[in-house]
Structures are given as structure tokens and as C-alpha cells.
Amino acid sequence: MDRFKKIKNVFISAGENRLKLVNIYFDSTIKKIEQVSEKIYDWKDLNTISKREKIARQFSISNNDELLIAIPGGIDAHVHFDTPGFEFREDFSHASKAAIVGGTTSVIDMPCTSIPPVTTIKNLEYKKAAIKNKGKVNCYFWGGVSGNNFEKREVEKNINELADAGVVGFKVYVISGMETFTDLTYEQIKFVASIVAKTGKVLAVHAEDKELVLQREKNLKEKNKNEWKFYCKSRDVKAEVKAVEKLIEISDQTKCKIHIVHLSSKNGLEKINAAQQKGIPISTETCPHYLYFTQEDFKNEKIRNFLKTAPPVKNEKDKIALWQGLKNGSIKFVTTDHAGCNPKKEKTSKNFWNVYGGIPGVEHRVPFLFSEGFLKNKISFQKTVELLSTNPAEFFELKNKGKIEIGYDADLALIDLWHSKKIKAEEMHSKGKYTPFENLKLNAVIRKTYIAGQLINKGANL
Q: d(Cα 184, Cα 196) in Å, to the nearest integer?
């Protein structure tokens, strides 16, 4: 094993809240995992600095780079890195750095925030060329189907060609605010689902009912009701639930694997959970902002505009239900819906309807879930790893990703759960340096990130 690289004395998951101390040998892939001690540690055995130091003394470890925790590199399955076409908001170089600093080694980029959008094989190749050599994070791609020039024969041709080219799945909107990637009717979504089902891929859907949202929005704007609470009222739980119900029907009828992106509500989750129990191939994800904030946080003027997303965050009962969904497996994984902008230009309007909706979150997802989930006893250590990496790797069939096992890619993050760090917008690596999580103390710090065995990040230096 002398010819291989080696990470000495790191803890890896041994299931639930248990860990084992190992050395990991690797080149671009993991070659050997050598157990340093036969003892399996419960997290309670090492959850303080003094307990950690005691174990370090036991094994004569003095190097601070050792006795960390190794996890498979994070996989964020829902990002908008905006290259090419929307680089005035975010670009692949900045976002890639943010991901890696945050312990994420793979992302799946959405098709809609590109010009041209990734709706054809030609546009996919253009996208790949545009991001080439722009960042070191592993990048996979969603294909998309928009309402722009929706012609059934062309749609079917494009879906099949993109599926053959290796996109992980397809994205559509029930309601979209983008002129370059418009929404579909439920009938159009049903047609798309019938084609996607034959490819075996997944159909991801932004689920807020267009008729409900636009009708309310029109009425509220006409009355000059321009505050945050009216935006939230237009996109309430009912709007999400109505769309979810329609998509469950479509999934049942077409047998297409439909994935509801960025779920925000308890009622929506209950509908999905019931459908899953019936064997309908419906799945969902949620994001850190839905797990941390409620609409009460819009009262805080300092973060109000930064917190705007679609769908908006909901209420305390929704937040609690989403954590429970992560615990019981009805929510498949945690993504960020990373979508940045220039906050001075697009996050300052006093008319909340005109504020850009998006949060650049890829840098904080991994430490957030360990700090707010595992360390607060909401989910186990193993479940945290699964939600961040293993589950998306398996769901999207990303070969040799998502686990620390022999033969898997040496995509690794070393995390320190004994120290803390506050989120500071000015320290972010995204192009748009803003966050509603400003000053949140995370009791988890990414120390190193490896991609294909290469040390890419050491202490946030790329």
C-alpha cells in the first residue's frame, strides 16, 4: 500500500451514531480501509474535545489534521450554477469553489438557468463546453422540457436523445417566472411523464399550482399589497398541495418516477407519503431554508429579502414535519436549490414582488445538516451521510459515488464536529455574497475536500 495516498486516523460511519477509526488508502479510488482499532465508538464516546484528545493520546496522535471524521463527498442534486447565460448572477467557477469548500464534491445542475436552456442535445453540448475547465467539482446535468415551442414529436425526440446522452433526469415547471424556460400545463406534463417513463429517468417538478398563484398575485398587486406576507399568501400551502396532488395522479397514471423539488409543507409531505405507501413512484427533497426558517423570519428586515424563494418557507409545523420526513425516509435527500444573484441589484427592492427569489446555499449544506440535524439529535450520523451523499448517488445512479467503500471514487470530505464556525456572507465563495443564515453558528467545520483522490480544499483555500 506504500504507493497509495493515505489518510490516517479518521472516523467513518459504522451505522446509526457509531463510528470506527480507520486509515484510508486511495489513488483516484479507495483501495483499502484499514481499521486502526477494533473498538466501535458511539458518538457519545467522543463528542467533546476532551474525549477526542483522550483518544488521540491513546493512539499517540498529535497532528491536528488527523482524528477528524471522513464522509463521502456531498452530492447536491439541485443547483443553478448559471453558466452560460446568467453569469451576472452566479457562474460555474465561483459556485464550484463554494461547493468544494462546503464539502460537496458533486452537483447536478438544472437546465433552466442556462442560455440556451438544456432542452436539446445541442444545447447540452454547448453547456458542457461552456463550463469546461471552469471548476473542479464533479458536474452532472438535468435535461429540461419547457413550454417554449412545445411540439410533441420534438419533445419526444429531445427527451430520448438527452436520456441517451446521460442526463440524470428532466425538469419541468408547473409555474415558471422565466421567459427562456416557461411552464407546462398538467396535460403537457402528463405527456412528458409518459415519454420520460420509457427512459427510466426521473421527472423533477417545481410544484406550485399556476392558476391559484397567478390569480392571487393579480388580485393582490391590483390592491398594491406589495409586502412579503402577500407574496407568501399567493404561494401558500394550498398552492403546493394542489400541484402535488395532480403530480401524484400523473405519476400513478404514467408510472413515471416523479420527483417534487424543494418541498416546503407538512400537507404536501403527507400527500407524498400516502402515495408512496400505495407504491406510486413519487419522491421528494427539501432544502436547509425550509428546515430552519419560518414566515416569522420575514419580520427580520436584515434577512427578509435574502430569504425570498419559490416556494416560500412556511410555518413551524411544516418545519417539524420536514425534519420528521428526513428521519423516516419519506424525503429522499437534502438539496440547496442554490441560486445566487447580485444582492445590491436584485435583493433590495421595497416591493417584495420585485425581489429576486434565490439563496446561494451550496457552501453551507453539509455543515448545516450535521450541526442542525445530527448534533441536535434530529437525525442519526448515518442518516445525515445518506441524505447528503449516499441517497442522491443511488437515486440518480451516479457510479462509484456516495460511499466510503473499496472501489468507490475517493471523493471525500473531512469534517470537524468539535469546533464551530459562524456563517459570514463576506467569506462566501459564491459570486453573490449574501445569505439569510448570516451569523448562524454551525458546530461543524469542513477541513479538507478530496475529489478523485486529489486534495482540492484545505481549510477553505483553493
A: 15
Residue-wise pLDDT for 17-37, tens only, equals: 999 999 999 999 999 999 999
Amino acid found at 434: Y
Question: Is 95 inside any structural domain?
Answer: yes
The answer to whether 325 and 269 are in contact (CB under 8 A) is yes
128 and 34 fall within a common domain = no
Q: For residue 392, is the peptide bond before it cis, meaning its omega torsion is within 30 degrees of 0? A: no
- Decide: helix, strand or coil at residue 143: strand
Q: Whole-prediction pTM value?
A: 0.97
Same domain, 41 and 80: no
Query: Are 40 and 176 in a shared domain?
Result: no
Q: What is the rounded CA–CA span in Å between residue 146 and residue 244?
A: 19
The CA-CA-CA angle for residues 108, 110, 111, to 5°, reads: 130
C-alpha distances out from residue 304 to 165, 229, 344, 352, Å: 41, 11, 14, 9
Same domain, 268 and 382: yes
Q: Tell me: do 61 and 179 sit in the same domain.
A: no
Instruction: Quick: pLDDT tens for 54-69.
Output: 999 998 888 767 899 9
pLDDT tens column, 84-96: 999 999 999 999 9
78/192 same-domain check: yes
Would you call the peptide bond into 116 cis, given omega within 30 degrees of 0 as the criterion? yes
User: For 299, left (φ over 0), alpha (ψ -120 to 50), or beta?
Assistant: alpha
Predicted pLDDT at 65: 72
Residues 6+ apart with CB under 8 A from 80: 86, 90, 109, 110, 112, 113, 337, 338, 339, 358
Task: Place 459 in a pLDDT band, splitting at 50, 70 and 90.
Answer: low
The dihedral through the CA atoms of 190, 77, 176, 303 has a sign that is positive
Record the cell numbers describing residue 321, joined without a space.
414535519
Which residues fall within 8 angstroms of residue 363, CB to CB, at 6 or more apart? 98, 99, 101, 102, 428, 429, 430
229 occurs within a structural domain: yes
Task: State the catalytic residues.
Answer: 337
Residues 339 and 290 in one domain: yes
Q: What's the CA gap between 204 and 43, in Å, rounded?
A: 36
> Cα(294)–Cα(429) distance, rounded to whole angstroms?
26
H or E element that contains 17: none
Residue ranges making up the domain that contains 143 = 73-395
The verdict on residue 401 lying in a domain is no
